[in-house]
């Protein structure tokens, strides 16, 4: 799963969601139609716009911002999503400066928290956790069934402080990767929310990428 970016890491107030599985197998089920899109949009104070590079691939939206001070952020370390049977370790991830890609955990049963965005203690912004849908080598990933979540489902994120924080799903959306409103989902402003992202849609055997992203938005319960 890769995410490409533009701009310096230190200037990032948002991240990329061009999440692709480089060696993946096709999903076993089709996603349901989008739900809660209006509510998800209302949580963000930014006006989302589709972002694409000259080559047509999504690029990272970059805006001026100060990275969280050391020790001031509570990273998620564990994610439980009972409706889809997920209990996963959460690793802090960033951007590989050499490749310009979002660094996902190599094991598909782990998920990655975008460490240049808000932590669980933040009173504003989108806490982003991304995971693999599957892998040709390892099989189903932690977020293989993410498309099955629906409004009202609950999940729990445990922080490094040992505190469990409960969230309620308000939206599930699917976007073509060239059309996903990245500014909305990686924003540091707007209402506090948890954003879960994985790949979805048809699998392109030629590029070995999924066409779409599945995005689930949850709010503190």
From TrEMBL:
Pfam families: Sortase. Residues 1-26 form the signal peptide. Transmembrane segments: none annotated. The keyword Signal applies. InterPro entries: Sortase, Sortase_dom-sf, Sortase_F. Keywords: Hydrolase, Signal. PROSITE patterns: PROKAR_LIPOPROTEIN. GO terms for molecular function: hydrolase activity. It comes from the Bacteria. This is Sortase.
């Amino acid at each position: 799963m890769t995410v490409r970016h533009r701009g310096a890491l230190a200037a990032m107030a948002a991240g990329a969601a061009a999440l692709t599985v480089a060696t993946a197998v096709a999903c076993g089920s089709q996603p349901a139609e989008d739900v809660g899109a209006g509510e998800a949009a209302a949580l963000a104070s930014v006006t989302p716009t589709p972002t694409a590079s000259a080559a047509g691939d999504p690029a990272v939206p970059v805006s001026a911002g100060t990275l969280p001070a050391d020790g001031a952020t509570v990273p998620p370390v564990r994610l439980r999503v009972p409706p889809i049977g997920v209990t996963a370790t959460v690793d802090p991830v960033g951007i590989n400066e050499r490749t310009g890609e979002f660094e996902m955990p190599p094991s598909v049963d782990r998920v990655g928290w975008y460490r240049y965005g808000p932590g669980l203690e933040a009173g504003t912004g989108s806490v982003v956790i991304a995971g693999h849908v599957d892998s040709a080598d390892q099989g189903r990933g932690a977020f293989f069934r993410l498309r099955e979540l629906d409004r009202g489902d609950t999940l729990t994120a445990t922080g490094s402080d040992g505190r469990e924080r409960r969230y309620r799903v308000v939206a599930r959306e699917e976007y073509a990767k060239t059309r996903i409103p990245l500014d909305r989902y990686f924003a540091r402003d707007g209402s506090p929310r948890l954003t879960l992202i994985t790949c979805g849609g048809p699998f392109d055997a030629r590029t070995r990428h999924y066409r779409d992203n599945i995005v689930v938005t949850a709010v503190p319960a």
